[in-house]
Amino acid sequence: MSIVLAILAAASTGYADLAAIDREVAGFTGAEIGQSGGAMTPVDRRLRLAPCASPLALSWRTQNHESVIVQCGDPGSWRLFVPIKRDLQGPGGAPAINRGDGISIAVNGDGFSVAQPGEAMESGAVGSWIRVRPINAKPNAEPMRAQVVRPGLVSLPLD
């Protein structure tokens, strides 16, 4: 289905075709939804955007390619920010935690969470496992492996 037909079909329902927006983002990034470099998730299907008679304008929001701006060219229309899935090895990807960073090490169990300060022994993207060392550890202590949750935070689940 061409973009023009998708726009016309959406116009008959009164809302923009969100699947067409997903396809445009995939074409712009060169990666499908959920793949490294592609949109993290499809555009939220609860959105009720006005149909766009103009072609969509897509651009990177930052130099790090963390999100794509999707904008309807109609005067006074809408603009979306679509987050991009980034892996450490992905194009333009950057680690969430770098070696030597000060971090919080959270130990999570059933119904509790305890955190202590630490240091990252290696770099890693969100979701990856890296070696970390608590600040109060002995100098010759073995580093622990923890999962990167977000910049500055790693987690050791006790499940």
UniProtKB/TrEMBL annotation:
What Pfam families does the record point to? ChapFlgA
Q: Which residues form the Flagella basal body P-ring formation protein FlgA SAF domain?
A: 95-137
Any idea which UniProt keywords this protein has?
A: Cell projection, Cilium, Flagellum
In its UniProt entry, what is this protein called?
Flagella basal body P-ring formation protein FlgA
> Per the UniProt entry, what species is this protein from, by scientific name?
Novosphingobium fluoreni
